[in-house]
């Protein structure tokens, strides 16, 4: 048995003594917040952002990201963390938590949760009337359409987020590119079908491509034959999810998570990439 | 922070009063535990979402529609399930199993037809922005939901204590056998109570997207655990004790979020255990009920 781990990016999943797992899409969560931290340390701090609040759901995915973000920020020493709390992943109301965060007077807030957490947080934040100069939410970008439907454009405006492969066109050497895949998706799941296009749609297709190519080249179906075939693709495969690169423990390190921002687009909003500069297609806007 | 947490807790707790009220009414009248109650809350939420997205019907109007439809659904459902249950030797235990199965079925069917994607209602329909109470910034939809909950509690009070049907209902709550012996149509009274219970769940569901951010088909189980904690704290079988149970839960949750946020989801279970150990009859119970 070999585990094709679609998007379970928790850092603890990948160890030297387990060669039977490989992460397909998304980088391992320990490196997700790198560009968030880089932006805060290198750009925002120069514009007066000096304090940070971190609120995270206590699961492996977001807990690992919170730990990584905390580490990056503390190592650089440019920002002071004034609030750092975990909440159960089942949390569905953030009103009091937002009041408590506001009482700590942070310039920047990073809320790390799953889609349900981010929807509730952004809705409660809009209702609270509180504003922060920098607000980060994972799924404002990762599941942009879903959050726009559930939170509304105004509630997402100016939020920083990750730019997922569903919103960034990578050059491919195998499979459909983003435009072709999105067209196929919308044919299968037209508007109103209840199935939204987003990063998870990319991850599933990308995983299928890796399995297809690995099975085509595997010498057999034993665990190590499949392991060798999958790891043999590392560094060679480029799909609409970006470069497929595994480290020796099976963690995905080729995919990247540029920092994006939800910016106004007429009465609506759009997701743009703002950092690092080589992936940017718009300029970041910090709140006042 | 303390006052803000308490104020928000009272408002949030009033909503959970509405979630638990119907569950307690059914237990009080029928001595059965409707473990599918949370799933009817979920269905109420989807009904409101569908009515708004398909027909542009405002959630307050949707609440009235849900009230009527869920009462109409609840009464035949009662006759389909409950009389057979009550003929069994251990109807309370069987009700747990049967309604757990019903809960699973509702969740599975909802997942098949509605998908697992989060759904919600736009915040603007109940107003965006805070209402400031004693310095605490409360979302307008929370205050709306709490107000609707207060109206529902008052309506249940009027029904129980100011109507003839309510008097008959209380008679059944005191002793089903004696009520039967005095000629009360126990099944009719119970069916109406069951319909009201589902209607209360459905109305709670209409406001769930505002209180919980979004709804998915699997929210029923979690809501049921919370509702159960609320009614145990406020005394099983005492619908109006649910108000206090809800407020105790809401304030405790907000205090946990403020001071021990990582542990906040343990709260319903902690409350259940604490109440069962210290005061098993609940805050308003006179004595421990003997099985």
Q: Supply Rg of chain B.
A: 18 Å
The proportion of residues in beta strands of chain B is: under 5%
The share of residues in helices of chain A is 25-40%
Major beta sheet summary of chain B: 2 strands, antiparallel
Computed structural class of chain B:
mainly alpha
What is the overall shape of chain A? globular
Average pLDDT of chain B: 90
Helical segment tally of chain A?
A: 10
Q: Structural class per helix/strand content of chain A?
A: alpha/beta
- Sequence stretches where pLDDT stays below 50 over 5 or more residues of chain B: none
Number of DSSP strand runs of chain A? 11
Q: Looking at CATH, which topology of chain B would you report?
A: ABC transporter involved in vitamin B12 uptake, BtuC
Q: What's the overall average pLDDT of chain A, rounded?
A: 92
Record field, number of beta strands of chain B: 2
N-to-C SSE string of chain A, H for helix and E for strand: EEHEHEHEHEHHHEHHHEEEE
- In spatial order, strands of the major sheet of chain A run 4-3-5-6
Proportion of residues in helical segments of chain B: over 70%
List the helices and strands and how they pair.
The complex is a heterodimer of chains A (288) and B (291).
Chain A: E1 3-5, E2 21-23, H1 34-42, E3 51-57, H2 60-76, E4 80-87, H3 95-103, E5 108-112, H4 115-128, E6 134-137, H5 139-142, H6 144-151, H7 153-156, E7 160-162, H8 178-188, H9 199-217, H10 223-232, E8 237-239, E9 242-244, E10 259-265, E11 268-275
Helix pairs in contact in A: 1-2, 4-6, 9-10
Chain B: H1 2-30, H2 37-55, H3 59-87, H4 91-114, E1 130-133, E2 136-139, H5 140-162, H6 164-174, H7 176-181, H8 186-212, H9 219-233, H10 241-259, H11 267-278
Antiparallel strand pairs in B: 1-2
Helix pairs in contact in B: 1-5, 1-8, 1-9, 1-10, 2-3, 2-4, 2-8, 2-9, 3-4, 3-8, 5-6, 5-8, 6-8, 9-10, 9-11
What does this structure look like?
Chain A folds into two domains: 3-26 and 168-243, no CATH class; 34-162 and 258-279, Response regulator (Rossmann fold, 3-Layer(aba) Sandwich). In chain A, helix 9 (199-217) crosses helix 10. In chain A, the strands form four sheets. Chain A has a four-stranded parallel sheet with strand order 4-3-5-6, with helices on both faces. Helices cover 36% and strands 19% of the residues of chain A. Chain A has helices at residues 34-42, 60-76, 95-103, 115-128, 139-142, 144-151, 153-156, 178-188, 199-217, 223-232, and strands at residues 3-5, 21-23, 51-57, 80-87, 108-112, 134-137, 160-162, 237-239, 242-244, 259-265, 268-275. With 288 residues, chain A is of the alpha/beta class. Chain B is mainly α. Chain B has one domain (2-290): ABC transporter involved in vitamin B12 uptake, BtuC (Orthogonal Bundle), CATH 1.10.3470. Chain B contains eleven helices and two strands, in the order ααααββααααααα. Chain B has a two-stranded antiparallel ribbon. In chain B, strand 1 and strand 2 form a beta hairpin. The radius of gyration of chain B is 18 Å and the shape is globular. The model of chain B has no long low-confidence stretch (mean pLDDT 90). Chain A binds chain B through residues 58, 85-88, 90-93, 95-100, 103, 115-117, 119-121, 123-124, 126-130, 146, 149-152, 154-155, 194-196, and chain B through 1, 4-5, 8-9, 12, 114-115, 117-120, 122-124, 128-130, 136-142, 211-214, 216, 222, 254, 257-258, 261-265.
């Amino acid at each position: 048995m070999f585990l094709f781990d679609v998007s379970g990016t928790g850092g603890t999943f990948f160890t030297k003594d387990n060669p039977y797992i490989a992460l397909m899409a998304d980088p391992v969560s320990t490196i997700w917040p790198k560009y968030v931290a880089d932006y805060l340390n290198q750009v925002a701090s120069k514009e007066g952002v000096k304090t940070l609040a971190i609120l995270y759901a206590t699961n492996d995915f977001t807990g690992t990201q919170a730990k990584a973000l905390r580490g990056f920020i503390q190592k650089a020493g440019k920002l002071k963390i004034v609030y750092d709390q975990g909440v159960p992943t089942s949390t569905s109301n953030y009103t009091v938590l937002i009041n408590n965060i506001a009482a700590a007077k942070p310039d920047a807030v990073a809320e790390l949760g799953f889609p349900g957490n981010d929807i509730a947080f952004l809705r409660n934040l809009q209702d609270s009337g509180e504003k922060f100069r920098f607000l980060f939410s994972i799924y404002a970008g990762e599941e942009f359409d879903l959050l726009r439907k559930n939170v509304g454009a105004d509630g997402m405006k100016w939020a920083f987020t990750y730019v997922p492969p569903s919103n960034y066109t990578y050059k491919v050497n195998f499979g459909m590119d983003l435009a072709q895949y999105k067209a196929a998706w919308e044919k299968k799941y037209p508007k109103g079908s209840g199935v939204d296009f987003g990063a998870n749609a990319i991850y599933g297709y990308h995983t299928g491509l890796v399995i297809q190519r690995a099975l085509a080249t595997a010498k057999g179906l034993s665990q190590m034959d499949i392991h060798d075939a999958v790891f043999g693709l590392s560094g060679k495969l480029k799909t609409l999810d970006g470069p497929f690169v595994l480290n020796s423990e099976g963690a995905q390190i080729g995919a990247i998570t540029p920092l994006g921002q939800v910016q106004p687009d007429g009465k609506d909003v759009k997701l743009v990439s703002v950092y690092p500069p080589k992936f940017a297609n718009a300029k970041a806007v910090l709140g006042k | 922070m303390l006052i803000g947490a308490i104020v928000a807790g009272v408002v949030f707790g009033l909503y959970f009063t509405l979630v638990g009220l119907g569950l307690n009414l059914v237990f009080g009248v029928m001595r059965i535990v409707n473990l599918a109650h949370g799933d009817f809350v979920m269905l109420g939420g989807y009904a409101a979402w569908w009515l708004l997205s398909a027909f542009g019907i405002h959630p307050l109007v949707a609440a009235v529609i849900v009230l009527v439809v869920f009462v109409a659904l609840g009464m035949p459902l009662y006759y389909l399930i409950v009389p057979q249950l009550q003929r069994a030797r251990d109807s309370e235990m069987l009700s747990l199993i049967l309604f757990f199965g019903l809960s699973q079925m509702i969740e599975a069917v909802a997942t098949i037809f509605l998908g697992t994607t989060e759904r919600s209602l736009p915040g603007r329909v109940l107003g965006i922005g805070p209402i400031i109470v004693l310095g605490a910034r409360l979302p307008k939809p929370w205050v709306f939901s709490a107000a609707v909950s207060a109206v529902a509690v008052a309506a249940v009070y009027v029904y129980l204590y100011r109507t003839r049907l309510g008097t008959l209902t209380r008679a059944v709550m005191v002793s089903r056998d004696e009520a039967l012996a005095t000629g009360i149509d126990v099944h009719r009274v119970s069916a109406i109570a069951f319909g009201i219970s589902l209607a209360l769940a459905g109305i709670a569901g209409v406001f769930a997207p505002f209180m919980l951010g979004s709804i998915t088909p699997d929210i029923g189980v979690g809501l049921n655990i919370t509702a159960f904690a609320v009614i145990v704290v406020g005394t099983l079988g005492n619908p109006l004790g649910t108000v206090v149970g809800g407020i105790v839960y809401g304030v405790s949750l907000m205090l946990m979020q403020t001071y021990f946020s990582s542990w906040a989801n343990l709260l319903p279970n902690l409350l259940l255990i604490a109440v069962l150990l210290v005061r098993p009859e609940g805050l308003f119970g006179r004595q421990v009920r003997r099985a």
